[in-house]
Amino acid sequence: MYRKFLKPISILGIALLSNYSFANIDPLIGKWRTIDERTGYSLSDIQINKMKDGSYKATIIEIRAAPGAPLINTCTQCKGQFKNKPLVGFLTLYNLKASSKNKLEFSNGTYRDPKTGLEYKSHVRLSNNGKHLSLRNTLPNSTIGRNLTWVKY
Questions:
Q1: Please, where are the H alpha helices in 1-153?
Q2: CB 145: neighbour CB atoms within 10 A?
Q3: Considering the entire predicted model, what is its pTM?
Q4: What span, in angstroms and rounded, lies between the C-alpha atoms of 71 and 91?
């Protein structure tokens, strides 16, 4: 009789442990493919990491040209220390913090647009399935901004 219950209990235990281990994975960390809102093409791949202070940063790890356009591999429009820096390794999003009210929202980040060199305040929302990231970037003291979508791969 003991053997009769051993197999179902073992299977249940393994299932619970595997779910617990997946629940601890931070869905924001990983590789994301950017989707350009103007062209619909993926122009770069991004790596998001969590910092020791709990904030997140995003770095460009690969760039691509839109069909028919030249490959831009430096930040020609950036100012100061970022002018003409290579886009691979470029820190595009930083100081992003998790919301205390909603585990799918992140705010107070700064997004540096590698095309224009402009810096935006960034608010980010993760989709329920964890595969899409919607970024709302607005210029400081303004409502003018842009929306971006990143897809996890």
A1: 2-23
A2: 17
A3: 0.80
A4: 19
Tokens of 23: 């629940």
- What is residue 107's three-state secondary structure? strand
Q: What is the pLDDT along the chain (153 residues), one digit of tens a residue?
A: 555 655 555 565 555 444 444 445 899 999 999 998 778 889 999 999 999 999 999 999 999 998 888 998 999 999 989 999 999 999 999 999 999 899 999 999 999 998 889 999 999 999 999 999 999 999 988 888 889 999 999
Contact 61, 91 (CB under 8 A): no
Of 55, 128, 130, 64, give the one whose Cα is nearest residue 93: 55
Measured distance CA(45)–CA(96) in Å, rounded: 18
Residue 150 phi, psi dihedral angles, 5° rounding: -120, 145
Whether the Cβ atoms of residue 73 and residue 86 lie closer than 8 Å to each other: yes
CA distances 151 to 17, 87, 103, 111, Å, are 28, 19, 18, 17
- Pairwise CA distance, residues 113 & 18, whole Å: 39
CB atoms within 10 A of CB 123: 19
